Amino acid sequence: MTDTLTIRRPDDWHLHFRDDEVMQAVVPYTARQFGRAIVMPNLSPPVTDTASASAYRSRILAAVPEGVDFMPLMTCYLTDNTDPEDLADGAKAGVFTAAKLYPANATTNSAHGVSDVAKIYPVLEAMERADIVLCVHGEVTDNDIDVFDREAEFIERHMRAIVRDFPSLRVVFEHITTSDAVDFVMAASDNVAATITPQHLHINRNAMLVGGIQPHNYCLPVAKREGHRLALRKAATSGATKFFLGTDSAPHLRSAKESSCGCAGIFNAPFALESYLTVFDEEEALEHFEAFASLNGPRFYRVPVHDQTITLERGDTHVPQTIAMAGEEIVPWHAGEMLSWRISS
């Protein structure tokens, strides 16, 4: 049995920092573990141009603890009116690493998102020419489509068309939740990859609905049936280079989660690596963890792998019930549980 695991320092290829007091509180949790992170742009107002992305990056860097080496990688929030020239210029200047497609009203602060994918085809053409990565929240938002079917429907309506019409565009299908998405990514070209969250590896939809509504297990896309969870675990732990770590850590204060209209999002940043590694251990796939956490993402985004390493060891990690934040408290992922791995260095 392996009791310690040393890997190259990992990156988080999908997360939310929010802004202001909450951002200042959550950034250190990510910087403690990860060298880089793809930062989502769905603030209010959203990060839709180079100037706002540069300013947001500066605020994030100011929240990184002194002596910690961490780099936020910024994304542009695509709208029906995104300026392709500004996006390309922002990428050339090193401000934008990717652009994010949110279907309008698909998730938190996505009201300004894309109403019709066809409207952004000129932007996608510019991104393909400039080799800018497209990150996709892959759900349709039609009221007549069941919330548990929206990812599969998005694949048929939009993802197949995007990868067909822009074959050189690098596309990340973010926080996939279904076997449909796993199959799509595996069958697509090497320009298509996917991130997988820890929560979608641990829970199915029963965790939200059995024994009463469980708001701290509610995120978007929602967890699906058990068969989908098992397909995600198989994909993540398989060693396939198309899948990599993206926590989708999304902090909401406890008062916003435990309300009459609770917010979607799971704050998993404090114990993200321990959570993922528990899954790989259960699947007897520790030999594939470094690729998933530290190698596949840099390869796809075409950035160097980190020289530094991080070591995890077997040992109890107690996750607190709550964490004080912004004058209130937040409930972390795995609250009250004991995880069997911990970061040792």
What can you tell me about this protein's structure?
It is a single chain. By secondary structure, the protein is α/β, with parallel strands linked by helices. 35% of the residues lie in helices and 18% in strands. It contains 12 helices and 13 strands. An 8-stranded parallel sheet has the order 2-3-4-5-6-7-8-9. Helix 1 crosses helix 2 (50-63). The longest helix has 16 residues, at 150-165. The chain is globular and about 50 Å long. The two termini are 20 Å apart. The relative contact order is 0.15. The model has no long low-confidence stretch (mean pLDDT 97).
Percent of sequence in beta strands: 15-25%
N-to-C SSE string, H for helix and E for strand: EEHEHEHEHEHEHEHHHEHHHEEEE
- Characterize the biggest β-sheet: 8 strands, parallel
* Uncertain parts: none
Taking all Cα atoms into account, the compactness measure Rg is: 19 Å
The dominant shape is globular
Q: What is the number of helices?
A: 12
Helix content: 25-40%
Task: Supply the helix-strand structural class.
Answer: alpha/beta
- Spatial strand order of the main sheet: 2-3-4-5-6-7-8-9
- What is the number of beta strands? 13
Query: Ends: how far apart?
Result: 20 Å
